[in-house]
Amino acid sequence: MSKAAKGQGAAMKLGVGRRTINPSQGHSLAGYFNERPNTGVHDDLWVKVLLVESQGGIVGLISYDLILLSDPLIARIRAALAGAGYPWAGTIPLAATHTHTGPDVGGIFDLTDRHVEYQERVAQATVEAAREALGSLRPAEAVCGRRDENPFAFNRRFWMKSGRVVTNPGIGNPEIVREESAPDRTLEALGFRDANGWRAIVVNVSNHTDTVGTNEVSADWPGRMEAAIRAWAGPQAHVFTLIRPAGNINHVNVRDPGTPVYAPEIAERIGAGYAETARRALAEGAPVAPASATLGVERLRVSKRTASPKAVARAKALIAEPAAAAGKDLTSEDLARGSREIERVFAVQLVEYLRQTPEAGREFDIALLSLGRDVGILFVPGEPFVELTARLLTVSPFRHLLVAALSNGECGYVAPPECFDRGGYEVLPVVGGGPHETTLERMVEAGRTLMARASQNTGRAG
Predict the structure, then answer these.
(1) Domain total for the chain?
(2) Which of 10, 121, 258, 422 is least surrounded by Cβ atoms within 10 Å, i.e. has the fewest?
(3) pLDDT digits 0-9 by tens, 271-289
């Protein structure tokens, strides 16, 4: 262990644990607009727990290879952790990797609460992984590095010749004019190590987790990235993928006619690429100064959207039409092509959104885990556009700011206000989603408040 690690030993200990959370065969996969019973396991899904003990107590994070964390699932996880006697059960951030080949757990697009048995299994696996993490606490040092190298990310929203924005318009579409905005090219890597080598590596990068496209269970590119990282970091290293805001980003280069959209080989290529970028980021990174790890939480209310009587009437007319049988997986590309089946899906969602969403809106935790002045990890709900990260960076006091989307609940796509009148399916209200037009700006304000508070506390401690 380096001199820095020796000096930090009393200030910080690290513990890690994990358990598999594969669903049973036949359990429907999430991510598309139709039921997809899984046909088996291509690669494992995991719940992973990272705990940091310092003078401030125990803080950490928990990551799930799931498309999202629904409100009922979160409630069961936190209740199970509280039942196990963990005082941080109600505040520890919970994040999803957003794999589209993970099991349906309820939430977005679901009209009823489903899969209670699987949710309970995930909650118990979380407790077991947390117990392992607590039992493995030992001194560690941290290193953090950044590289502006993300060649696999592309904006998926395009201005078309019609003057509207379309999501996933299709490779080579001649109606495309230009991308709506630029992708986030930054990859942040936070590593923890001791005398025996790397124990945990946290990778924060912006991309959608929808590359495999099969009906087999898979962690998608985060699973392949973990395998590639462990090849150079050692089998003892636990890898945590925190998805940087990517609501308007995916891996598809629509200007390349030879670009495949879905295949396990794509996950392999992207995972290997991010693993190598993380290795370089850590090699070039700097030690994180010894400091107490702290966690701050702000409650964010996401207000309910409204819809015009004309939009509601059109939705009800679509619902009344005879439904055609779906003969294939239904994706957002079908919506861009004008699929009536997908239009009907969103018509149902609009009507149910207005009926089911509380008039007062919904509340979510935004959390900031900080390691002194060097590193802050901000956990936000839903799928924000990359513009959230850009705006948070302008107010961040940290040398490294990691932003983890899909955390502490799912509120849907969080777009900047200017995007709502342009088009694209992300701005359409759906059950469990449809955040108000002001949500992204309010996330920035909540993040600013948490970071200012952490900076003040660090200043007093220093």
Answers:
(1) 1
(2) 258
(3) 999 999 999 999 999 999 9
